[in-house]
Amino acid sequence: xxxxxxxxxxxxxxxxxxxxxxxxxxxxxxxxxxxxxxxxxxxxxxxxxxxxxxxxxxxxxxxxxxxxxxxxxxxxxxxxxxxxxxxxxxxxxxx
Length: 95
Hints:
This protein is of the alpha+beta class. 51% of the residues lie in helices and 19% in strands.
């Protein structure tokens, strides 16, 4: 049980949204062709965290997916981790 607690413990200067942003970045970079064009803008507010993903215009379709299925899955993962670390999360794609 101590191992689980130490894994969930945050570094003193790390925000809960940083962990969620790292997850989103990992997933998005695995989908796109131009990894260097991927950037995340994380905005923390009282209501929660907004993560805006910017990528190459050609890769925006890959991140969004057919009928939005891929971005919906990314949002589901982000919200699940956000709930675990104690913050509401929304993910937007700015292609």
